[in-house]
Amino acid sequence: MESGAEDVAIYISTTKSDYRLGKAFVESIEQFADRPLIYILPDDDYPSDRMFGHPVWKPRDPRILALDRYYKKLRVFWGPAERFVYVDADQIVLRDLRPFLDHLRTRDTPFFMASWASRLYPGWLAGDSEARRRWAAGWVGPTDQLAQFEPAFDPTAAYPFASGNWAASRNVFDQTVLLDEFARALEFHARSGRPEPMSISREAVFNGDQGFLNYMVWKHGVAVDWIPDFFWWGGLPESEWTCKQTPSPYTGLFIHWGGCPRPGPVPIPWSTVPLAARWRQLYYTYCRKHGDWIGCAKDSADFLALLGYQSLSRLKRRLF
After folding, report:
1. Could you give the count of Cα atoms lying within 13 Å of 318 in the half-sphere of its Cβ?
2. In this predicted model, what pLDDT tens digit does every residue of 228-254 receive, in sequence order?
3. Is 229 left (phi over 0), alpha (psi -120 to 50) or beta?
4. How many CA atoms lie within 13 A of 125 on its CB side?
5. Is this prediction's pTM over 0.90?
6. pLDDT of residue 315
7. CB crowding 145-181: b at 16 or more within 10 Å, else e
8. CB–CB of 78/140 below 8 Å?
9. Which of 29, 30, 11 is nearest to 82 (CA)?
């Protein structure tokens, strides 16, 4: 990488439903860095070994491949990079990422860095046991199931982090323990009799990879290095993007539209998605650079179809 941080990778996980989002994200990185070390994690049936101009990384070991769907991002611990940043595809970089990559390049390993939202953290500190239990249930997993799975694990004892943006070294967790714990969770889920496999279940012992990562941090006694507001949440207007504690140099590196309306290639007059125009600018720059106009047409059609489906769903809820 131009910054000298060539041993620090950026992993981007994406699925068919958000491949279009990855195009703008990659472009937002490339506008700051020349030849960034990016690896893409698409769906397992993606046929090529490259995506968005960067290599696809997919494991071959069946035990690692079992980390799929809601748990796919955990595969990065077997990836080619010793130090890395993990990011979901539904975001863009807002400013130069290279100083952060340079910082990771000098870090002693093992390390694990996660974000806390400074607007939410005071509520966690002030919350009583019941409030923290509800918080843990939403962020980590159903507390009754967690107590059955691992009686010693108290998900209310530490502030839970989101899994859309974090950084780590590959050796922060014992890989064998991680796979063993995941296999144990799969067995626990199977015994519950739920019809859906754990990898796509919304009623599993863990809230997907996010819950499992929080559990593994506890299991290994990992000291989390916190970055306040590593990303701004796209569900809030820009006027509320303020760090309510001392910011780090890496506060606000990303905007993440996780769990809220996302931008698309077609402008929607009534849309209030923050930085949607900036996303479209990056998206169309990518399409021009790669001559991806057929993909652009398909992305636009898919986006309009999604908006139509969402509008019909809202109308049905109101009528019925």
Report:
1. 6
2. 999 999 999 999 999 999 999 999 999
3. left
4. 7
5. yes
6. 67
7. bbeebbeebebbeebbbbbbbbbbbbebbeeeebbeb
8. no
9. 11
